[in-house]
Amino acid sequence: MNLQAILKRLENCPCGEVHTFAMRAVEIGHGVAGRVGEILRENGFGQRLLVVADANTTAAAAPLFPALTAAGFSLKRLTYPNLLCADADRVREVEALCGDVDAILSVGTGSLNDICRVAAKTQAKPFAIFATAPSMDGFAADLAPIIDNNFKTSWPGVQPDVILADTAILAAAPVELKAAGFGDMVAKYLGIFDWKVARLLVDEKPYCPAVADLMLEAVEKMLSLADRVPLCDEEAAGAIMESLVLSGLCMKLAASSRPASGAEHAMSHYWECYKIMRGIWPDFHGKKVGVASLIMTRVYRNIAERVETIEPTADPITVEAVHAAFDPAQHAEVDRINAIALTDAIPPEKLRAAWPEIRRMALETLPDADRLYDLMRRAGCATEIAEVNVTPELLEAGLRWHPFMKTRILLTRLLPMAGIDVVEYM
Ligand SMILES: [Zn+2]
Ligand SMILES: [Zn+2]
Asked: Ligand 2: distance of its center to the CA of 207 in Å?
């Protein structure tokens, strides 16, 4: 991936921000597993590596380990049986092993990357990822979703110095994981739409149309590969991986997760926290984000098409109503996240005046939900709530209460002011 070309494209950006990133190299290709040692050395990595993996990713990346040893690296291994979620205790485990190593190599995706991303920051170690599946878009991000106090919040981490992936390994990944990567990418239309809404109503900085365009190009490329996602196709798997890395890079360039996540990610996190509280496996990130994206795309488009005018009032949502929608063990975190009353900055009159433009932006930015459904089925994605173990009751609660998962303006957060019950537009 030509990182310099991306930086060049955003030089002297009209948005006024200086866009930068820390990443030094992204190598995605056939046979990369055998060249990892060479690539790490070229990028200044020392020879003592902490390798964090789980049993699945260790098996998938089998050729990597002898190649690293042959290249002169010494490996200190932390191998989980099966790491299903990134929580604060796992972060501490990685940190505790960092004393006598030069760098951290995370072998895998998602949670394995996230615990390392945070530890690399707190322990000031160089950080590389060897990806085993194109399953989500967080590879190039510098924030990590970590479960703490029964809640999922973004912790500061580092962007990896190097991201590596062997297309032979990516292509052989389970279809469910590759389809999850596809599901995570269809969310981007919603992220960009909610970002535009926030810019319109509260002039949120930094909104950057050039980063939004870069993201949408990555999404379109991904959608064009829908039929090849379920196949063991190295070229398609490599292209999917590139678009996922580019998505994470866009977050770094925008210094915000805005271009990559909107109401759908918040709803998926609501489902996830609900399940974690009850000891239920929350399912793959991109798999449930894909389902949430399909629902939210339909909801936003239905509202834009059917609600021609609104007569907004002051925000009718009370603290008591928000508390009732969350478990008592989550209240402290919910209170912290919602300490700033976001809607104070948006008088009813302003929302009323902005409504025609919000409708126009929704119809312009968001894809047709039936077309999206068709593409997702072809890519092997989950499209129904039952496929991600979400009941109709949890769906309704998630639709209404996800805006309180984040200190951020989403259109869904403003719908109660407009007298719109989101559940009626599914
Ligand atoms: Zn995501
Ligand atoms: Zn810009």
From this structure: 7
Q: Which residues surround ligand 2, an ion (CB under 5 A)?
A: 13, 15, 17, 208, 210
Burial class, 40, CB count within 10 angstroms (exposed 0-12 / middle 13-18 / buried 19+): buried
Q: Where are the domains of the chain?
A: 3-173, 182-204+258-425
Which one is the CATH code of 3-173: 3.40.50.620, 3.90.190.20, 3.40.1620.10, 3.40.50.1970? Answer: 3.40.50.1970
The number of the ligand nearest the C-alpha atom of 114 reads 1
Please report where in the chains the tokens 């998926």 appear, as a residue: 268
User: Residue 281 pLDDT more than 90?
Assistant: no
Q: Which two tokens stand for residue 66?
A: 């002898």
Residue 313 Cα to ligand 1 midpoint, Å, equals 33
Binning pLDDT at 50, 70 and 90, where does residue 293 land? Answer: very high
Percent share of the chain, pLDDT over 90? 89
pLDDT in tens, 138-152: 999 998 989 887 788
CA distances for 18 relative to 156, 159, 418, angstroms: 20, 17, 37
Distance from the alpha carbon of residue 59 to the mean position of ligand 1, in angstroms:
25
